[in-house]
Specification:
The chain has 113 residues and is mainly β. 0% of the residues lie in helices and 56% in strands. The radius of gyration is 24 Å and the shape is flat. Strands 1-2-5-6-9 form a five-stranded antiparallel beta sheet, with no helix packed on it. A four-stranded antiparallel beta sheet has the order 3-4-7-8, with no helix packed on it.
Length: 113
């Protein structure tokens, strides 16, 4: 289950997205529920083609995998305590009006096809 919410205000775009995985059984393992929430902000400046973006992944630090099993009295449990949070900052500039060179088309005449 996943959802994305976008809010736009002139040159500023805010995005909030999240997903949730229900608990499941995978073979002999029981996998616990997992979820994550991410948020981002994009600012399009007055300079044509220039924008700045900030994105923060796993805001609430909830992306933790929990796996367990109990087969014939042998119990096994695994909990992933890796920190999946990430902050990224991007600067993007689109070269407006850029036109690529016309490329010559290649032929396969010399191959005898």
């Amino acid at each position: 289950m996943a959802n994305t919410l976008s809010l736009m205000q002139n040159k500023i775009v805010m995005e909030l997205s999240g997903w949730y995985q229900f608990p499941l059984v995978q073979g002999i393992y029981d996998v616990g529920a997992m979820c994550s929430v991410s948020m981002g902000l994009v600012w399009r400046t007055n300079i044509k083609g220039l924008s700045f973006a900030v994105k923060y992944e796993d805001v609430f630090d909830t992306y933790r995998m929990k796996v367990s099993t109990d087969v014939s009295g042998q119990k096994y449990a695994f909990k992933n305590n890796v920190d999946e949070r990430c902050l990224s900052i991007n600067v993007k500039y689109n070269f407006n009006g850029y036109k690529g060179k016309n490329k010559e088309t290649s032929t396969d005449d010399r191959l005898g096809l």
